[in-house]
Amino acid sequence: MSKKRRNDNRITEEEASKILDEVLTECGKDKLSVPISDLMSYSTFRKENYGYQQNLLMTFIVLFALIPFLFMSPIVSTSDIVIGERGLPEITVDVAGVLPVKSVIAVLNGIRLPVYEVNPHRFTIEPTHVGDIDLKVTLFNDQYVEKIVSVTDIDSEAPRFIKAERKGGLIYIYAKDDGVGVNFEDSFMLLPDSTVLIPLDYNAEYNYVVFEDLGGNAEVYIPDNFENIIRIRY
């Protein structure tokens, strides 16, 4: 049975060594003293080593190109305050750049405000009071920017009086604000002699504040969260 013919063009080490010896003989050179297998192994080593060096070089180039991103700070812009869809004041915060935003923190009068993410680089804040918002925007690389956003009196509507009820020596005054809400905590009663009385109780959920019932001839001042005040005489 005849040997199966190889169907590729590769040659064996023995064939390669024979061909190389013939070439050297024709050129009048001595035959190789190093086995052809050693030469082929060295060639493979050079090829693999070159590939490793090339990959290492590319890695250093990529890392070097990424260095500026490690120190890139966010560029933050804020919009004017407008009345949003929910009827509350709203501020839009835009963060320029390609790096992801890690966090947006807004603090007003010591209270942390909710921050809503519209998209990866746009956020909205709904301030509940007048004052200065301490805004801190931090990127994924932990670089951050802090800025102050002033919240001014943009809500010009005072709370509206609903009713007053007397019971048990107390007067319950009901008021409501359709915008930012009533600030019952800072309500007060002013007597004719300029004496100021603070509330005995209040309930923002049920929209009332409670004072001692002094029989009339007094005024109650109830503000909203943007310092608009309703004055109620009873």
Describe the structure.
The chain has 234 residues and is α+β, with helices and mostly antiparallel strands. It has 3 domains: 14-69, no CATH class; 75-151, Immunoglobulin-like (Sandwich), CATH 2.60.40; 160-233, Immunoglobulin-like. The chain contains 2 helices and 17 strands. The protein has helices spanning 13-26, 36-70; strands at 75-78, 82-83, 89-96, 101-108, 111-112, 115-119, 122-125, 131-139, 144-151, 160-167, 170-176, 188-190, 196-197, 201-203, 208-212, 219-223, 229-233. Strands 1, 2, 3, 6 and 7 form a 5-stranded antiparallel beta sheet that branches. Strands 5-4-8-9 form a 4-stranded antiparallel beta sheet, with no helix packed on it. Strands 10-11-15-14 form a 4-stranded antiparallel beta sheet, with no helix packed on it. Mean pLDDT is 81; it is low at 1-7.
Top-tier CATH class of the largest domain: Mainly Beta
Low-pLDDT parts are 1-7
Average pLDDT value?
Answer: 81
Any idea what the shape is? Answer: rod-shaped
The arrangement of helices and strands along the chain is HHEEEEEEEEEEEEEEEEE
> What is the count of β-strands?
17
What fold name stands as the CATH topology of the largest domain?
Answer: Immunoglobulin-like
How would you classify the quaternary structure? Answer: single chain
Radius of gyration equals 40 Å
CATH architecture of the largest domain: Sandwich
Biggest sheet features = 5 strands, antiparallel
> Counting H and I runs of at least 4 residues, what is the number of helices?
2
What structural category arises from helix and sheet content? alpha+beta
Query: In the residues, how many domains can be counted?
Result: 3
Distance between the termini: 123 Å
Strand content: 35-45%
The proportion of residues forming helix, as a percent range, comes to: 10-25%
